[in-house]
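Worked example

This section walks through a single chain of length 73. The input is the sequence exactly as stored; nothing has been trimmed or padded.
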Amino acid sequence: MRDALRSSPLFSVRRLLVCLVVTLAVVTTDALFFHVEPVRTAAEFGTEVTIHTLGFYGGYTIVALFNRSGTER
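Given that input, the structure is written out below as tokens.
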């Protein structure tokens, strides 16, 4: 069971961490320099990071599920 989850394209801690790092960089840059989406409190910052990380992770997971080239089916 653990091996199946580890090799599954559906769940990936590495993918989640990559999404979190990229989202943190984008939201921090926006909050400090561009102000496209005004962030005034730490709670708003956390909400922005959480929402965008989960969206990015969801999209990245969908791509991983459909792009299984090089693996056995």
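What to look for: The chain has one domain: 2-66.
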